[in-house]
Each structure stands twice: as structure tokens, then as C-alpha cells.
Amino acid sequence: MRSRIDIKNRRASVQLLFDKVTIVGKYEVNGRILILPIQGDGDINVTTDALNVHYTVDYTTEQKDGEDYIVPVNAQSDFTVKKASFHLSNLFNGNEQLGTELKSEATNKVLNDEWDKFVEAIKPAMNNLISEIATGIVKTITSKIPYNDFFPE
């Protein structure tokens, strides 16, 4: 982990490197992934190797109870991965014409064979999600600790 805080310009940045990250959750998609038409919702499992996240946030201050508190604004994130693998269930909403189990597995295979293109396709949405999550964590912390406790004069 590396971090840098520019007090004069009110900007903080953090870089985090994770050897392996596994994300399990739900997904919903209606459109195309790569060249594949997909409509479905279900379980998703994503595993990444060497996930490198860079998060930058500007901040202002706000007075509360006679003290200044940091308020994060204008957050941005970017990430890279060395490798990623995916598994999405119910890719075709159980539509027998579009999605047999064989087609779902074949689609998952294409996503994994072309993982780098898939990552690039979903990167804007993932960067927004990372920024939202990180900013939520920052807000939770900075709303409880006064500015002068972070940066004593």
C-alpha cells in the first residue's frame, strides 16, 4: 500500500495491491458482453490475480459542532489486473432457445479466454463501483474524526 496526501491542494491518493481477490455476488445484464448477446441474472464469481487499485479523492471541509471535518468529493479510481476469471450462472434467464447449460458454459469459456477484453468492457462500471465503495469508507471515517486529528497544526 502506498498513500499520498497533498494538504495544500486537498487531494489524497492510495494505491493498493492485492495478490488475489475473489468476489462473489449477484449480477444482472441485458445486452452484449464482447460480441455475445446476453440477458440474464444470477450468481457471479470473479477471481483476479495481482489486482492493483489506485484511488484518488479531493476533499473539502465542513464545520460540525465547532470543528472542521473532511468531506470527500471528486473521487476517481483505476485498476489493473494480471489475470481474471469469471463464472456467471443463468446467463440466458433459463430461455431454452438461447441458453442450454452447454451454451452457458461455452459463454463462460469465451469470457475466460478473452478475460482481458471483458475486463476492459466492464472497467468503467467497476471503476465507478470501486470509487463509490472507497468513498463510503472514507466518509464513514472522516465524518467521525475532526480534520485537526488527521492533520494537527
Automatic annotation (TrEMBL):
Matching Gene3D superfamilies: Haemolymph juvenile hormone binding protein (3.15.10.30)
SMART domains cross-referenced by the UniProt entry: JHBP
UniProt xrefs under Pfam families: JHBP (PF06585)
Superkingdom of the organism of origin: Eukaryota
InterPro entries reported in the protein's UniProt record: Haemolymph_juvenile_hormone-bd (IPR010562), To_sf (IPR038606)
Coiled-coil ranges from the UniProt annotation: none
GO cellular component: extracellular space
PANTHER family: PROTEIN TAKEOUT-LIKE PROTEIN, RE70318P
Protein name stated in the entry: Uncharacterized protein
